[in-house]
Amino acid sequence: MLYNAALVLEGGAMRGQYSTGVTDTFLKHHIEFKSVIGVSAGALCGANFVSKQYGRMVDVNTHYRHDRDYISPLRLLKREEILNLDFLFEDHGWDWNNFDERAYRRSASDFTIVATALESGKAVTFTNPTGQELIDALKASSSMPFVSEPQETVAGKCLDGGVADSIPFDVAQSQGFDKIVVVRTRSSDYQKKPTSRVLTEMYRHTFKDYPAFAEVGIARPEAYNQQVADLKELEQAGQVYVIAPTKPIKVKRLEGNVKKIRQLYEQGQAQAEEILPQVISYLES
């Protein structure tokens, strides 16, 4: 069933396995959305949801987490990034779970990726990109400051979309949707702590050529906490439906324990199955 609604997916690196558990449950029950909006790991999750590749992300992150071509500090010795996002979209052969761009292109859903522009420090969006533009936008949205190099996109150099817009329900609102399902990767009461002096100096030193981006990064905790407050108001008013972990997530951003990764995915699945009637009632009301 294709609903005239938007699905918004928060980022969070490996915490995104929770979101994958939720979206795979939607796939299992043939629930689709007219608009899918993702940031960072949420964008990677969203791409696989739109292409209807059930289980792809959890399979890759459990079977290949320790593949040095994917994630490894040793990559730094070769002046490469710790996290190789190209690995997710390269053709690894017929017996590998390759990304199905043909299925992605055929989807009835519109797909929007959110990234942060280095020059302005503002959120930029890429809607229904294909080919190299799709890969560039996904890489940009998922590239963490201090860990990844800025990515070239059609909107210029970009990094992690979560810096400027961690929970992009505002994008769904701007698209005109009055039914919005938001999948969080943090508990509903989670609050970010103010940016430390050390991290503040790191932002200003590392991004001295992009001061607007540095200041947005420094102010991210306040902006994030305000988004959470706004989201709670919208939820209480029945304007959005929020799905958030009910148990504390103990998975690190680049978690190496594949058992924990699998358990988080299964946590998302179990919770989505439990609340599915409520989600459908909200979408159909």
Structure explained in plain terms:
The protein has 285 residues and is α/β, with parallel strands linked by helices. Helix content is 41%, strand content 15%. The protein has ten helices and eight strands. It has helices at 16-28, 41-50, 56-63, 101-106, 131-142, 169-174, 197-206, 211-218, 220-236, 258-284, and strands at residues 2-9, 32-39, 110-117, 123-127, 151-153, 156-159, 180-183, 240-243. Strands 1, 2, 3, 4, 5, 6, 7 and 8 form an eight-stranded mixed sheet that branches. A hairpin with a 2-residue loop joins β5 (151-153) and β6 (156-159). The longest helix has 27 residues, at 258-284.
Compact overview of the structure:
The chain has 285 residues and is an alpha/beta fold. It has helices at 16-28, 41-50, 56-63, 101-106, 131-142, 169-174, 197-206, 211-218, 220-236, 258-284, and strands at 2-9, 32-39, 110-117, 123-127, 151-153, 156-159, 180-183, 240-243.
